[in-house]
Amino acid sequence: MNGSSNLKGGGADIILEGPRQAEYEALLVGLDLTLGVSVCRDILATSLWRIGVATDILW
Predict the structure, then answer these.
(1) Is residue 4 classed as helix, strand or coil in its secondary structure?
(2) Domain extents for the chain?
(3) Among 5, 12, 31, 51, which one is most buried in terms of CB atoms within 10 A?
């Protein structure tokens, strides 16, 4: 077990590497804070689309 699941539900780990790694990490930190206040997954899809990450693999 990698710690991605907990009593509140499941989870997943994503590893993003490349020349824009700092931007990916900043986005994920922001999303973690946003998702912590129950904002819908459309924000995640839109954000990933804006940085060019394929969203079809996430859903």
Answers:
(1) coil
(2) 21-51
(3) 31
